[in-house]
Design goal:
Blueprint: E1 2-5, E2 19-22, E3 36-41, E4 46-50, E5 68-72, E6 75-80, E7 92-93
Antiparallel strand pairs: 1-2, 3-4, 5-6, 6-7
Length: 94
């Protein structure tokens, strides 16, 4: 698994930094392995992630591809609310 910060020149991924998450697998297809928030599943009552995201290219069109690591009661959680989104609330936390 690779964590790629919004600004790759900074190197390390710090808490509260927008990042892409990508599975590193031997690929036999052209399918992306970058995480992306998909849809809200009303049966499961939770948001679903898929692996059709786009690495890099921060902006409103790729907003669902950007996650952040945030402190959560002494641990950490992944949240969706990238800095490119000035109006969103925390949509995903797990």
């Amino acid at each position: 698994m690779t964590f790629s910060p919004v600004n790759p020149k900074k190197g390390n991924v710090h808490e509260s930094t927008d990042l892409n998450i990508k599975f590193e697998v031997a690929k036999t297809s052209v399918q992306s392995t970058v995480w992306k928030l998909d849809n809200f599943d009303a049966i499961l009552v939770q948001w679903v992630c898929d692996n059709w995201g786009v690495k890099g290219n921060p902006g409103l069109q790729t907003m669902r591809n950007w996650l952040r690591i945030e402190k959560f009661y002494g641990d950490y959680k992944l949240v969706l609310c990238p800095s490119v989104c000035k109006f969103c609330a925390e949509m995903l936390a797990f």
